[in-house]
Amino acid sequence: MSHDAHHAPVASKLDLAPERSDLGLYRPDRTRGLLDWLTTVDHKKIGILYGAFAMLYFLIGGIEALAIRTQLARPDQTIVTARMYNQLFTMHGTTMIFLGVMPLSAAFFNFLVPLQIGARDVAFPRLNAFSLWAFVFGAFVLNASWLFEFGHLAGWFDGFAWHQALTYTDFAPANGWFSYAPLSGTFGQANAALQSPRFTGVGTDFWIIGIQILGVASLAASFNFICTIINLRAKGMTMMRLPVFTWMTLVTSFLIILAFPAITVALIELMFDRQFGANFFNPSAGGQPVLWQHLFWIFGHPEVYILVLPAMGIVSEILPTFSGKALFGYPIIVFSGAVIGFLGFAVWSHHMFTTGLGPVPTAAFSLLTMAIAVPTGVKIFNWLGTIWGGRVRFTPPMVLALGFIWMFMCGGFSGVMHSSAPADSQQQDSYFVIAHFHYVLLGGVLLGLMAGLYFWFPKIFGRMPNATVAYVASGLVILGFNLAFGPMHYLGLAGQPRRTHTYHAGNGWEDWNFVATVGAFILGIGVFIAFANLVYTALKGPKCSSDPWDGRTLEWSLPSPVPEYNFAQSPVVGARDAFTEHKHGTKRIAYEADGGEAGVHMPSQSWMPMLAAAGFLFIGFGMPMMAMGIPHAGWVVVGGVAVLFAGIWFWALEGPGGYMLKTPAVSPTPAGSPAAAPTAH
Amino acid sequence: MFSRLLSRLGLFAAPLFALALAGCSKADLTVRQSTLDPKGPVAQMQYDVFMDTVWLVVVLFVLVGGLLVYAVVRFRARPGDTAAPIAEEGHGNPLVEIGLITASIGALVFIAVPTLSAIWYTDDVPAESIPKSKLSAWYGAGLDPAISEQVLEIDVIGKQWWFRFEYPQLGLTNDAKHSVPNEMVIPKGVAVRINLRSEDVIHSFWIPKIAGKVDLMPGRKNRMWIQADQVGHYYGQCAEFCGDSHAYMLFRCEVVEPADFAKWVAAQKAPAAPVAAGSKAEQGKNLFAAKSCVMCHNVGGHFGAGAFGPDLTHLASRKSLAGAWLDNRDPRAQRALEQTSPLGTEASVPVDRATFKANLIKWIGSSGIAQGADGKPTQDVKPGNRMHYYKMFNVAGLRETHQTLTADELDALAEYLLTLK
Amino acid sequence: MSQDAAHHAPTSTGIDHKKLIMWLFLASDCMFFGTLISTHLLYRKLYPTGFTDAEGHQQFVQNLFNIELTSFSTFILLMSSFLMALAVSAMHKGELKSFRRNVLGVIFFGLIFLGCQVYEFTHFYHQGLTIQNSVLGSTFYVLTGTHGTHVAIGILWLVLLYFYSFTGKLGGHVGALDVEVAGLYWHFVDIVWIIIFTAVYLVEYLGPSGIWGNGLPVLAK
Asked: What's the complex ipTM?
């Protein structure tokens, strides 16, 4: 196939007349450089930015993890203080979940979904940019707490009255990623200044506002993706022809819009407790701390599937490609994905088996949790069925995808073990649980995402990562991972509780903790090599063809890197696995008569999404500064809200804009189609 | 070639690793806090259910894992394969799918049934245990008739970062100035009901060899029951993250013969012996009052005002200090015993005075009360602890008035505390 | 190619993006208010006896509530929904003047509702119910306050649309759609209030002594 020949862009945006918005301002129109990256509304560039930030935070979260493992390598160590350790594991969990895995999944959503459904962009390009910048600023706020913490430890604030008045001086959050009240909340009656006695300092306030901002980012992105998938499918791309990754994006997005409100409300309530002396979770005023746990896990359990389903989608794309065979039982895979998402809302209390729910709820949640193993098992069976009878080609993505199945299966097995509440009462909050969810989230999700990176990297940058380095890296990752987290099964069963910064010699935990630390470092080196390989490839890797893997879905029919308009002419799809059918089957992809000389409509770049999101930066710093007692900090929050509203206001008033871009023709344009000149309007 | 080998080795590391772990003698299953060494019916029940899940999972692991390995090896691409596309199987095979779903549900029923029965069994003292467990059946004389048909109840109160144990039926309560901090004692072979409360944040009560954990929720009353069938010294730990010093919130459980239990209760109610006049201990006793230790700590027979901190009346008889983080026994003797004793780690050597005194000086000296080398209060053993009242009441202004101890005063105080047998 | 045609290429479902995303937002908002209302009802069930005021007197919620006033503001909000429907309909017909008249009415009624809420909050505050002194105060103020914030944002949005209509850019299919989407939001906020009015106010008067069984005769003042 020679699609590439037809795809050279024939018009650059800079050739067009400068465009004025409805506000009368010139719209940004750079197609390269910093200005472009700051104002872009192109889903592919936004996806790349998500990916870059996710890798940065994987690095930070990984360093935090290695600090944790170093502290635990031997008994009775004092490399970090107890509080610093608590801050490290809190930020490690929060960073990996909200700033690592979710944004990396979002990177794939952004880059792939429009390509897989045959669209030119997402439904709301500027909203997409807003999601990105809200994430970036929220992540910055959360991590800025470290800067305050280091400033505090270095004594920079010692001279300030507000600092001397603080009772609790933890500036980075130290509550765990779950922030259970009342440890994160208040206790006792509020005094005249509305300050209730509490157990933690402003670190918790940073955490609350940071997660709140990240929630806004995730919600906005999810509305956008559901809209895109439902509304922007190419002709012939029926729901049951959608690539499985797109399906899993859809399910994940629904999970986000239905699960995040619970944590949003919980965070609002906790914020009112801390900042305004409310009593939602204050036990001495009648508040029920267990309510926080319910609200948190009503969000938190679907969140697990929010993390896992995209990786499952990725693996469901890779396995058929390298088995040379269609996905076995596509409808059942899709259906079980939806069932997992649905059941995910009905099992949250299995995180709370030890809180004294009573036997009936415990039994009900035990059984429901076991039930969720069925659709998960179905997925594994169908992946097996996909390999069965195929021609398995070993490539870096395939090795990582097979690693995903292995590790995820092991994680699923230990999950079955603590779905049984009586067994869980021994495992809850022990290292067994740590082993379990790292097998699911690291061995599962991270391997899946890495497989996706190695799979689609040639599409994203048009360059092929070095396979040898990739094999070494994936070998180190899988080996180091098992060495780090395999022993934790034993440690948990031997009674080592999690979230403890040290332990005594004599409990029989010393040797396996040391092994785990060694494994963690091997894992860290492996992940670093894998990422470094990708970064090198993006900059200097060897060029490759547009379809190096013999891909099955629409994105492989496009040139690499993908031109900004994606499809020169909109495809008309006749089958599932449209591109495979096009290449090897009978149902070829047809093309609509759009594009070409008539041009395609492209959205204009805009400053407004970033301006609006910048409001969150001020809100995010203002709220913890209020809690610190810094004078006039409330005005920072007010200013942030003003910036947010101003950004949205101008966003609305500048108008959507857009310009027509001429594209090369894929197939002969039907006679008589109007040829419009490339003018901005 | 090497890289491919490494990646494939990595791929198959999981099963290899599981085997290595299972076969490795280093993985001792009877360590102090092992959940795999149950010493009572509750832990035994939880262990049995766990083993059910383990067997199920091992079978599934071998089956599914084996199939996966077989499929990957058997269906690998070979040179000379035809390039023709493989037939469409996108709809799967309904018979296979339904069969597998049914099999999965069947496998889950295999663990669901024991799970349900264990949930109810572990919820409250089973009826069949009550006749032999009620107080009249095993506790000695002097029993109030109102409680004689009840099983023994222990109130566990969690605080940052220690446990207070109260035996309300037997008069050992904080209100009666007879509470028991950090080292609970239970009779062997009878069921005991545990009531769980918290006075600040969430904690969790966990003695792995006797029972799985249940949380201590502020504003809620949780309960569980336990029973230990073997005399010995058991190790417990708070299992819910509860702030700075969560790792230091441990406790012990001494399981004794029922006859010894009554003696222990009587001993707990006895006041502390008077200290010899003119001794170093007397100097320490005066310091105990002068340095406001007395505000929080009760010493029966000497001082009676304190109710906030741990009761110190019988401090010198305890095998651990500072939320059971510091061990008052000779560590070498204890380790030697654990390696040779047929009872395993449940055996315990007596308190060692020198170790105890060193622990006391370390603990009190590092609690923000004594001065460190730089003249500032030091805090090593338990960061964030409430050993001084400005921390207890969370008032920053009181910080300036806090008391400090010199090394000599610390020594005297330790001497006094060691008289509290 | 006209602007409209470019922006409104037919979607896969035939539903416009803006309408679809608003429905999705409302689905999410349902969960949001569902969580807040659940919090209130759970605590109401747990602590049926009201709250203790600053003087230490036990206060019952029926004594606090002014059900006539709240019924009035509920009615006003419902009527604003009616006007909103008229405004949307006017926009679809291209009657800009009628649209402006009706949307001003919605804004006015919305402001009356907010005014009632502000009055209610200050009144309750002086009666002794604060956000700090009881769980009831916390759940009540945060729940109704969050709803009030939704109303305020709706008013802000409609004011923007009102002024925008004078620029001449609000018209045709796009304009009608923009107004319709704002209408969806406004109707949703109204419906949520009906639920809040029922779950927070009316249930206190159900049954001979109130649904929470606090032993108080109906409408005792």
From this structure: 0.91
